[in-house]
Amino acid sequence: MSFFTDLAHQYIDGEWRPGKGSWDIIDFNPYNGEKLASITVATADEVDQAYRSAQDAQRAWGDTNPYARRTVLERALRIVEERESEIGDAIVAELGGTRLKAAFELHLAKEFLRESVQLALRPTGQILPSPTEGKENRVYRVPVGVVGVISPFNFPFLLSLKSVAPALALGNAVVLKPHQNTPVCGGTLVAKVFEEAGLPAGLLNVVITDIAEIGDALLEHPVPQVISFTGSDKVGRHVATVCAANLKRAVLELGGNSALIVLDDADLDYAVDAAVFSRYVHQGQVCMAANRILVDRTVEKEFTEKFVAKVASLPVGDPAAPGTVIGPLINSSQAEAISSLVEQAVAAGATALLHGRTEGNLVSPSVLTGLAADSPVLSQEIFGPVALIVPFDGEDEAVRIANDTPYGLSGAVHTGDIERGVRIGHRIHTGMIHINDGTVHDEPIVPFGGEKSSGLGRLNGDAMAEAFTTQKWISVQHGRSQFPF
Predict the structure, then answer these.
(1) DSSP at 316
(2) Is 34 a catalytic residue?
(3) Are residues 437 and 274 in contact, defined by beta-carbon separation less than 8 angstroms?
(4) Which candidate in 46, 105, 115, 253 is catalytic?
(5) Closest by alpha carbon to 4, among 20, 28, 21?
(6) Which one is predicted more confidently, 123 or 364?
């Protein structure tokens, strides 16, 4: 496909160029195995070139009037709006997203670009009082300089833009490394949008590479002051460790094991709809997905019957087909891992109310129940179409089970009493929780992030300014200070 081959390059200092590594990343369509592009990886030297060009370009960009920076973001938004159909097709082809998922991702991408337009003007300074007579304390909010962004494969266009656009709006330069399974949608497509929007050369660089080629060069390099990483908690811990050793700030959006709680007074039909979406959107490859569906034992039978019936009706197949809900997982290793997880759980005594089949990278939905309280599957993130139904007796047990995980990203509570749901929400150790809704939500001005192993820091809205700027104190002594010697 020419769309992918045209973008199958590194983008460094405003130039499209081949990588100089010794091997290629092959970009495949996960549904039909079609080869989309071949990209020679970037070397550690090219990572250095990207960071140095970013550093050089940022000096002028940081001094640019924020209204001028805002104009570039406005043009980027218009380009995405004009190319929406083409970008949607790319999302379907490169990551196996369904038409519904592609539309969902593009809707959010546009919303986050709109917020970034506003963000360019948001940072403000302060004048603070001083105990010293005649002193004026000025506190400026200034760009950090260069930001390194590492994005995942599940929502690559959105989650790259989510850090790249605010960082640029706030006066920084960026080096972006997309996931090797989505090098175009998560990387070079973003570069193309900003290039056409008139972003000056060097301010956004995209390096398509792998740790096998560059090691930790992307993290250890002396230029970037902030690393924004979205991905697994295992890799996130490594990113945090390297950043700490090099005195860099890390913003980490990591995995989850969210619980959707159905109380005894919930609207069961509505709760079923919310739970099915929360578990199976994009084949369950979502950090906020409802891994565990906790149901009060008094309504467990009715809820489970309705839930299983709805899940069984979800169309599985070609993500390009308009009616498909469950498309392929991103690659064969993910498909094999999910199949193995279900088999192991059943062998350990779980009951499969639905036992999904695996054909290539297509994995049909599974629904498991009857899991032992100490089953390892209950405490881990499941990045695939597998739901776990867990009964509970009363609110206290629901809270205990919901908190019995190393993760704390999202969650939901379904109840006929909103304030009851809020009280329970306060007791669950998670960064986000939604009453009478699904677990999968992201809004441009609301702080997004997790607790425990689900991450460090927050993104969105004012949190973007905290993430991608720093504060500088300049004091002015209008009189004369008195010194003790």
Answers:
(1) B
(2) no
(3) yes
(4) 253
(5) 28
(6) 364
